[in-house]
Amino acid sequence: MKYGFFDDAKKEYVITTPTTPYPWINYLGSQEFFSLISNTAGGYSFYKDAKLRRITRFRYNNVPLDLGGGRYYYLYDNGDFWSPGWAPARKELDRYECRHGMGYTKISGKRNDIETEVTFFVPLNYNGEVHKVVVKNTGDKKKEVKLFSFIEWCLWNAQDDQTNFQRNFNTGEVEIKGSVIYHKTEYKERRDHYAFFSVNAPIEGFDSDRESFIGTYNGFENPQVVAAGKSNNSVADGWSPIASHCLAISLEPGETKEFVFILGYVENPLEEKWESKNVINKKKAEDMIAKFSDGAAVDKALDELAAYWDGLLSKYTIVSKDDKLNRMVNIWNQYQCMVTFNLSRSASYFESGIGRGMGFRDSNQDLLGFLHQIPDRARERIIDLASTQLEDGGAYHQYQPLTKRGNDEIGGNFNDDPLWLILAVVAYIKETGDYTILDVKTPFDNDESKATPLSDHIKRSFDHVINNVGPHGLPLIGRADWNDCLNLNCFSMEPGESFQTTTSKDGRVAESVMIAGMFVYIGKEYAKLMEKIGNQAEADRANKEVSKMKDIIMEHGFDGEWFLRAYDDFGKKVGSNENEEGKIFIESQGLCIMGGCGIEDGKAIKTLDAVEERLGTKYGLVLNNPAFTKYYVEYGEISTYPAGYKENAGIFCHNNAWIMCAEAVVGRGDKAFDYYTRIAPAYTEEYSEIHRMEPYVYSQMVAGKDAGRFGEAKNSWLTGTASWNFVAISQFILGIIPEYDGLMVNPAIPASWDGYQVTRLFRGDILKITIKNPNHVSAGVSKMTVDGKEISGNIVPVFGDGMEHEVEVILG
Fold first, then answer.
1. How far apart are CA 665 and CA 241, in angstroms?
2. The Glycosyl hydrolase 94 catalytic domain covers which part of the protein (predicted)?
């Protein structure tokens, strides 16, 4: 069952009912000001950091669903009132539509001959959210209506709403000037920032106190002010500040009027704190408001936003016979990758924005999906991430985006983390050819006195693995590897003991075959990089360690039909046919084969056949099988989940991509693409009532075959699934791969395909690559011509002329 449709020409998903299976959201903003907005205008806004600079309030896990706050509008029409986005008033509409586009959302509703359309977006280089509200009388009689706006201010640190709201109830302050409501709570305390909500028209009334507007025992669906059709002109003094305008609108038959509302944030330099006692300096806000004084200015900004996204998305495009593939590659997957760049895992409808901040492992992997779009900002992100690294090569697992400081509460000791930094740096250099990043002096733990070149950071990342190995020579897992819930050391901890002490020196010996596979895959890339920069001694050392680890994997990490997952702290196998439950895990199968393990002797093919047989479902590959049905103290959190959910045999869409990549490595393009279509959002649209999450972006997890709700997704948008699936389809399957000396073409596609065309911007050159498959093979390049001339090999050289070049590739 569908709840909307793709409008590929406009790069929009069009939702045709407000009652989607779950709120289907979009993200606004691309620099510093960000917003989450649902298909009924729920959500919230923040500046840089969803915890420390939350602008508007939102209540998670709310009942009714998605009525926890938003940017709400109400139309009052002769005693009747309703909302153009259906919520929060939830009155039946004659027509409803939501269009989620690239960085904007347009919601429209019609009732009793009044049609209202609201376009929400964050303009480029602007710390505010703009709402263009259009009200039209579609009837044959004159209408006198009132438009009420509503947002609820947050008190800056969003965690205070959960922990210290007794204080918040005494600090709320506002200031009203004309049609602008200023929120200055904490301005007196911090004296450098405030927010505002404005409209470009005279107002009949306003409210800034929530209780006065809604009523003590009312909800967003029936605010007493709206029901009465008249504002109270309340001025907040403590309690819960809000901002609401009331506009009286007179409309002749067929007449349209439009208004511009702005929700903005201002941070003043220290010398501009106060105009006078307890009065904020409004100049910056007034300048921001003046910039969008009318609808024409808004339309221009929307055009600029569209051009911005067209530019980003044009850097990798495909033309194929599969519309679903085209829309995923050309639009939605790349768009989601950019959103994960901005937000990592911090703020979604499943992450509150309060706890996680930016993830080290997460953000390094996210970079793989967007660096071709914004290489300069990718470079900055790499330095930010490396700056949180610890001197031993480990890393803080998370850091706060506003302060860029590591999270001491979570700490480090996730032993896969360091390797992802190497992969990010290698990918950046291959994409850009910029080796100078290796020379950037980068601190450890944000201590500038400990700064060393980035090349030293990635060396320490490499050495962190070989300095922390267990009795089989496999890498120690530490607190956990990629699978945060596989806690093979946690059972042996003493009361009060910290995870941070879990190293090779304290006797804990749990080992990760997954990290070993990562080390072989990423270590080879590290060795190639060292060779490229002329450090042959380091390249030789690295290759020696990689070769050694590969031998160890094949001796101690292969279980006969597939790769083990780990050894626990007792030295017992995890992910073995010898186990009662959890006999096979997905992670090590993909990464070991991506690293080249088992390719020559057929063990890789044997492994991948076992993956399909034991992990395969119609909705994707489950993480492990059989699912755990009881608690295993030696495995930790993974066995606390019910069978089929999350890490306990759920379908983790993130590491499904590693199996796609592994299938491509062994040349089985049919299987690689088959797995791709099982989880790619555009292919799940037909069963949205089961999947429930947005049919235009990936979710982290889909309930597995052991779950009561098999096929249902959770945790959409902010997931490494986005970047890894883009890597899987764009590089491993379609086969357009950045390399140090050019762009490699090495597809692994379904044999039935006749071909396709990819246009790729690479180091300033525009490469139009036409793949032809006359012999209907899955892999292998038999001939390549560039600008009509045949070349040897399958790497398109870097021209550096900024021109367009025609590349033709014949598979065979």
1. 57
2. 308-735
Q: Which two tokens stand for residue 580?
A: 């009662």
One domain for residues 548 and 636: yes
Q: Which two tokens stand for residue 473?
A: 């020579």
d(Cα 473, Cα 470) in Å, to the nearest integer? 5
Cα dist from 68 to 197, 206, 219, 754, whole Å: 19, 22, 10, 50
The closest alpha carbon to 40, from 5, 4, 14, 66, belongs to 66
Cβ atoms of residues 319 and 756 within 8 Å: yes
**How confident is the model over 288-339, as pLDDT tens digits?**
999 999 999 999 999 999 999 999 999 999 999 999 999 999 999 999 999 9
Q: Are the beta carbons of 304 and 292 closer than 8 angstroms? A: no
- H or E element at residue 197: strand 193-199
Residue 540 designated active-site: no
Last residue of some domain: 447, 467, 487?
A: 467
Output the domain CATH number for residue 601. 1.50.10.10
**Is the model's pTM score more than 0.85?**
yes
Do 142 and 291 lie in a common domain? yes
Give the torsion sign (CA, 134, 137, 142, 144): negative
State whether the Cα torsion 792-796-799-802 is positive or negative.
positive
At 80, list the tokens: 């009747």
CA 481 to chain centre: 20
Q: What is the CATH number of the domain that holds 743?
A: 2.60.420.10
| CB of 76 closer than 8 Å to CB of 427 | no
Asked if 544 and 585 sit in the same domain, the reply is yes
Break the chain down into helix, strand, coil percent, rounded to 5: 30, 30, 40
pLDDT the model gives residue 352: 87
Catalytic residue among 192, 445, 484, 670: 484
